[in-house]
Amino acid sequence: MVLDPQQSALVAVARRFAGRIPGAMPLGRLVRRLLDPGLREIDRLRRHEATRILQPFPDTFEERYPQLFDALAERLRHVPEPRILSFGCSSGAEVRSLRRRLPQARIVGLDLNRRMIAQARAADPDPRSDYRLADAPLPGEAFDAVLAMAVLRHGVLEANRPASCAAVLPFARFAETIARLDRHVAPGGWLALYHAHFRFRDTPVAPHYAADPLRMSDHAPQTLLYGPDDRLLVGAVEPAVLFRKNAAAQDG
Q: What is the pTM assigned to this prediction?
């Protein structure tokens, strides 16, 4: 974050007195949140989009999942203009990474973070990239691949590892989101999931998919997992990240 001199002075004062005055540390955090546009947007999402937001933090970077991106490009190489959905696209780094591999693809990026969508649009003028302030595709849209990477998770669960996820991100929200995405995966299309706190196999739509043998050697298998009862799955490991929808499956 780049602050002007007046903002920097306010932050400096808040930090100087943070350890000396009772209540100053929360005040310092409040000042920082008020001055930082990115933190203000996260605060807005938590306050006004609580029923729609999943992972509130938009952290990402270019080429975050190269092995998966390569695998998808290989599986879609025979599709002249593959349709791809980046669910929770943040600043568009995922879309740009896919674009380098599939230049003819038509890629939709969805996110509820207004600043991230603005950044994505500014960084990617390709007319085949469509960035939307939304949490779902348009009715009837179908995609050859849908990615939900580091979206179906929450930092509070990672930090505290509670015995139940119900108070933070219950399994029902995961299952509802997967069902919503499934409606937009074309028969024979691909669903990519990683860095989630739940297993795809536990969802009602899982029988309509087959797990791909891909195992990402550049990322660790998912281990902080919760079951349909919202309870921590002790010792559970989920290495699967890519799933193919049965060609005969009907979108619900």
A: 0.83
